[in-house]
Amino acid sequence: xxxxxxxxxxxxxxxxxxxxxxxxxxxxxxxxxxxxxxxxxxxxxxxxxxxxxxxxxxxxxxxxxxxxxxxxxxxxxxxxxxxxxxxxxxxxxxxxxxxxxxxxxxxxxxxxxxxxxxxxxxxxxxxxxxxxxxxxxxxxxxxxxxxxxxxxxxxxxxxxxxxxxxxxxxxxxxxxxxxxxxxxxxxxxxxxxxxxxxxxxxxxxxxxxxxxxxxxxxxxxxxxxxxxxxxxxxxxxxxxxxxxxxxxxxxxxxxxxxxxxxxxxxxxxxxxxxxxxxxxxxxxxxxxxxxxxxxxxxx
Length: 299
Description:
The chain is of the alpha+beta class. It contains nine helices and 13 strands. The chain has helices at residues 17-25, 29-36, 41-61, 85-88, 128-134, 141-148, 153-174, 263-266, 278-285, and strands spanning 4-8, 71-73, 79-81, 92-99, 102-109, 112-119, 185-188, 204-207, 210-211, 215-221, 226-233, 259-261, 296-298. It has a five-stranded mixed β-sheet with strand order 12-1-5-4-13. A three-stranded antiparallel β-sheet has the order 6-11-10, covered by helices on one side. β2 and β3 form a beta hairpin. The radius of gyration is 19 Å and the shape is globular.
């Protein structure tokens, strides 16, 4: 079944009427409704791209026809494949995230996977020092030392968001979400500086003070502002410090670079499932693009 690493630049996507109404015909009604309820077009575009990527990866990797795919969400909001195909492909996992200018997807066969994208940006209000004070409990003393060792406020902020993406990728992979104490996990990010477009797998994670060998973390920079972290682990790897993922033949398999998709790529396998809905376009173009400050959203 293979794996996938995809990115879509929703920040530069300016859909016309035909594109937006085609996209709406290719997602399930409850998702179309949910996307339509976003206040800003930025968020609606990112959510739509995420849903299209999920259906695309299932259609292309599992060879399930687009209009036969049925998706539901867990109680914590994570999408999953509902129908009979789920029992046929129980080990196929996928996850999406969107923030800043990108929507991203990671998929794996036989492994847990979580993904997060973070855009480095100044706090909406207050100083960086105050922002760090508010976020103090989200990181360990060692992580804060690494963040604050950087030479400028901007690079400190950039390193902060890199660590945040790593933590979110792991939380999303294990599916626990709210309630997990983020200080239980500590990242030793390596290398300190990453080049745009390159894939890195050197970062290590400690769980309760012990190096967690059952997990691999892929990192990349899509551009100068956007970090992506992908957490990959054995289905039973959480808490298993001795199950070294990189020692069991996965090193060659798990080295996917991100593929930047176009809108035509997103709908290449699509089968429109519903009639065109012109008022959906009118609702979309009536929205404001963004609020005064950028926010963060993940799925």
